[in-house]
Amino acid sequence: MPVPTFGVLHDFRQALPHSLEPARYYAECLDQVVRAERLGFDTVWFGEHHFTADGFLPSPLVAAAAVAARTSRIGIGTNILVLPLHHPLRVAEDAAVVELLSDGRLVLGVGQGYAEDEFAGLGADRGRRGALLEEGIGVLRQAWDDGVVTGADGRTLTFAPRPARRVPILVGAVAPRAVDRAVRLADGMIVHASRITEHRPRWDTLDAALTRHRRLRADFTVIGSTVVHVDDDSVRAWATATRAMHYYEHLLSRADPAALPTTPAVPGTRADYLVGTPPEVAERMVALLRTAPYDHLCFWGRLPGLDAATSVRSLELFAREVRPAVEAALATVKAPGTAPG
Fold it and tell me: What domains lie within the chain, and their CATH numbers?
């Protein structure tokens, strides 16, 4: 069975109330990305949200450029950039610059977005976000592939600098309509699910879309995004991760931070999440990947509310104990449908 690569996701979200100045927090997160590269992680991903009280990263390509200057090997991706909030030509330009600064390490993950306050605040048409996403992907491809673009005034304009290779464009998708769009337009898809049991139904939706559009699975990259937290102590791991997941799930729904319930709670039980000791996380991850065989699996490098030492320790345990165990287990498992022998 194919063994996935692994990555970390950073959104620079610092749980309220802030304990560090934003510049200090950013510096710690960038140091963690450098550490992740040294630990062998394959990709770092940056999300995008706007107008959040806790400072969720609003500029993923700016962060990507900073990481490009401090690293040499790790892939750099957006997960995700909300394309309808931006002029697609500006995204094409900024992404091309990151691609060149990183010497060909960029993966551009885009999505249609959902938050009403973001679209209203930035003057974007939320009602056309699906169409704007499709149009924007077309503009990106035209700019990078052809080196010419059509300006707002209808004139043909030169686009430069151009990437030296075809930058992968992935689309974030969960709902069937979004998955269908990803399969039609993109080089691959990014799908998020926190609980282990949520991944297989989303994979089934993807399989149906691939069949419908006659796309080969081997030619379509699938990135899984989830929550992972590893600790030597199982009880402590769950207590830490529960607080963090409770916080980010609540605020991703755009709820008022002041209304955050004081008692942390998440759906399901410990067995539903990739949280625990290295053996526990490895066993659950193998089970997940046997049913949803992602090409790449990424997770938060620093969950909101975690101090730097705790989050780095989790990454170290994953790199040194979980990943080798997962790779060893999957290397001995044949892919579904493979004949014995």
Answer: 5-331 (3.20.20.30)
